[in-house]
Amino acid sequence: MMPRIMVTGAACLAATAAAADADMRRIDYTCDRGALIEAAYFDVDGEPEAVALTLEGRLIGLFAENTGAQVRYGWPSDGSNYVWLIEGGAAQLLWSNGAEQSESVLLQECLPE
Q1: Which is one Pfam family of this protein (predicted)?
Q2: Average pLDDT, rounded, for the chain
């Protein structure tokens, strides 16, 4: 069963994209251990707004965070959540533990197909 927060996140992404007249682009990634991630990026006025990731049948909705040189997507809360980080053409999927204020790499070396 898909966690309720992920479904809610995906619904929020769809509503945000529709309301903001966002451009959508899709990129498939292959990560370490052969994991496949489908990413649908939503950009508004050429700036990252949100991403919907599909991994092992799970839909993960994340919003863009202002980080400077990196493109980082996360969930706006102090709790635990996924983070999608893109830098230099490669991506990583992280788990952010809100209670411990730490991040762990779940998948790395995610390269576009």
Answers
A1: MliC
A2: 84
